[in-house]
Amino acid sequence: MTAPIRVLLADDHRIVREGLKQVLADAPEVQVVAEAASGAEVLQAVRAAGAGLDLVLLDIAMPQGDGLDVLETLRRDFPALPVLMLSTYPERQYAVRCIRLGAAGYLHKGADPDDMLAAVRKAASGGMWVSGATAEALAAAMGRRGARPGADALSHREHQVLRLLTSGHSVGEIGAQLGLAANTVSTYRARILEKTGTKNDVELTLYMLDRG
Fold it and tell me: Which one of 10, 133, 154, 208 is most buried, counting C-beta atoms within 10 A?
């Protein structure tokens, strides 16, 4: 018999986890052996499981530890454990960034169930799941090399600040959410404006809207 694919399913919405479990249940060799509703719970569950996991299916938008922060920690502390990122964000926004951080692939929550199962199998076997949309995003990112660095050149922390700035959060609110001093957030904001060639938050938001 084929060895089971033991999955940690991480999403902060229980109803989403239940839906994903139903999809994964269509593949008898896939077993959801642990669940997590926050970034902190993901790390606790992985450390508790030891070698008892074959794949982490990880949402990007997680409380108590942004999904990308969790991904970085897992890649550092558990480099042999594949992490398949899951999100409602379009591939053009996050797929390239996730893959650069070491993810085994990027899966949209609206993906066809067959594609989701194929992605789980591929990632758990040590491969890389690249959908058509992700391939386009990767090609576009490579095509932008040599042009003005823009958002692709942002560090992970700068990208977090960018996401919050363009969602209408103030510097103080961003600092509280990310655990940073207000002047540190302001420094990140200045770097973001410089790299994107924008002058203020309005221009920055329009710049990101123009990029989709």
Answer: 10
